[in-house]
Specification:
Length: 450
């Protein structure tokens, strides 16, 4: 692979850069495959070619080779997420800088397709995680992946970063995996080399500053900012760290590394900010950069207006609770002809967010009501909240894949609504009728490949 000469030249002064080894690993054709397990959905992973653990993330696993993930029902059940190993370092970072996760409000600003959002929702299980994506079609993918992950503490929004200025000091943790020039993905995606240019690096650096300037006001005083890119370029990495300290009144936070990880700690030239570089010749992963900061600027409290959410009627709640076993301490509200739920302690925060942002997904969609009949939602099926109330049917792999393709499949069980499962994990709903089976797997999520 021919790495752009201008990139190699720019990296000569980058801490830890080793030209010959860097070029050799890109020429090798080696591919690193990794997944992150969902701690809320334990499953038998023996069918996956697991090669070992990702040292900096306790749920991370390396694979010997890349299987055809699309044809693994466990992926569609949300049992794991296919995520690049270097980016899983986010888990290590938040463990060190936010050891107390309870009650934290977290924003993943540039969230699609959802790798970091699902990781954050697993770590901040007792917090509230908002996953935002500005591009509409990418936001739809984010909704799908967050829904399959199944945590009820996840909200998905579709907003420009500037919209979050309406809620100053709202979040305790701000994750910005900024749009970048993508040089860290050259080995994984050789086509990225073709679109890389010095001009795009400069453009990305300017865009990163604009996004940060728009978003930092929504971070609380003493709140934590985690900034990352998949770029090697210093103007997108260390220079941005200096800019944050100079312009945004941030304080750099250093992390503790294990020397065996191969991660390179850098110190920015102007303001001595800590950063962490991942070179593929030194770590088992792709190119990545991450830096952590604490906000020192005082935030003046502003009383935010709330939006009154359409409350589900007591009768419908009684019907739901009689039919479906759910956790306690949930509040129910209506959205788009469906009943959704969120932990009661987050209703006030949800009302504030709903007043200022476009919310595509809040909590878990439980069901819709057709007269007296309850139509359970797919989000409920794959959520960590569903505790019973409908019979279930365990499918073999052939029938599970047919179900996920919305094709005819075989299942024997009680007439009416049944939860389809594979390997003990729910994958969706079907309704057994006397002469047919109605498949309720979401049509837009079905497997299209044969």
């Amino acid at each position: 692979m021919a790495i752009p000469a201008s990139l190699i030249h720019s990296l000569q002064t980058a801490t830890g850069f080793r030209k010959e080894a860097f070029e050799a690993v890109h020429d090798s054709g080696e591919q690193v495959v990794s997944i992150r397990l969902n701690p809320s959905k334990p499953f038998d992973s023996s069918h996956l070619p697991i090669a070992g653990n990702v040292s900096w993330c306790e749920q991370g696993r390396y694979l010997f080779e890349r299987p055809f993930f699309t044809f693994d029902p466990f992926l569609h059940a949300g049992a794991y997420y296919v995520q690049e190993a270097s980016s899983m370092f986010l888990w290590q970072a938040i463990q060190q800088i936010v050891p107390e996760s309870y009650g934290k409000k977290v924003l993943d600003l540039c969230a699609a397709p959802g790798g970091k959002s699902t990781l954050l929702s697993s770590y901040f299980k007792d917090g509230l995680v908002v996953a935002n994506e500005v591009i509409k079609n990418r936001a739809n993918t984010l909704v799908e992946n967050c829904s399959k992950w199944g945590e009820g503490n996840l909200l998905v929004t579709n907003n420009d970063p500037s919209h979050f200025q309406a809620i100053p000091g709202f979040f305790d943790v701000l994750m910005i995996d900024a749009p970048c020039s993508g040089s860290g993905l050259f080995r994984k995606d050789p086509t990225a080399v073709e679109v890389w240019s010095e001009a795009n690096v400069t453009l990305c650096s300017q865009r990163q500053q604009r996004i940060l300037a728009d978003a930092v006001p929504c971070l609380a005083e003493n709140g934590v900012l985690i900034y990352s890119t998949c770029s090697y370029s210093q103007v997108e990495d260390e220079s941005i760290c200096d800019w944050l300290l100079e312009e945004m009144e941030m304080e750099s936070i250093g992390l503790t590394l294990d020397s065996q990880w191969g991660i390179v700690e850098t110190i920015s030239e102007a303001r001595k900010a800590f950063g962490y570089r991942f070179y593929p010749d030194q770590v088992k992963g792709e190119g990545f950069f991450l830096a952590c900061f604490r906000k020192k600027k005082e935030v003046f409290s502003v009383k935010s207006k709330i939006k009154n959410l359409p409350v589900t009627s007591k009768l419908q709640i009684q019907q739901l609770q009689a039919a479906i076993q759910l956790p306690e301490n949930l509040s129910f509200f209506d959205q788009n002809d469906a009943i959704r739920a969120i932990e009661t302690r987050w209703m006030h925060e949800l009302s504030i967010l709903a007043n200022h942002l476009y919310i595509k997904k809040a909590g878990i969609e439980i069901a819709s009501m057709k007269g007296k009949d309850i139509v359970p939602s797919h989000e409920l099926a794959v959520s960590a909240w569903f505790m019973g109330g409908f019979p279930s049917i365990d499918l073999d792999k052939e029938n599970a894949l047919a179900f996920l393709k919305r094709k005819d499949f075989s299942a024997e069980g009680q007439k009416g609504w049944n939860l389809m499962r594979f390997g003990g994990l729910p994958i969706g709903w079907a309704k057994l009728l006397p002469n047919r089976i109605n498949n309720y797997y979401p049509a837009e999520w079905r497997i299209l490949k044969e």
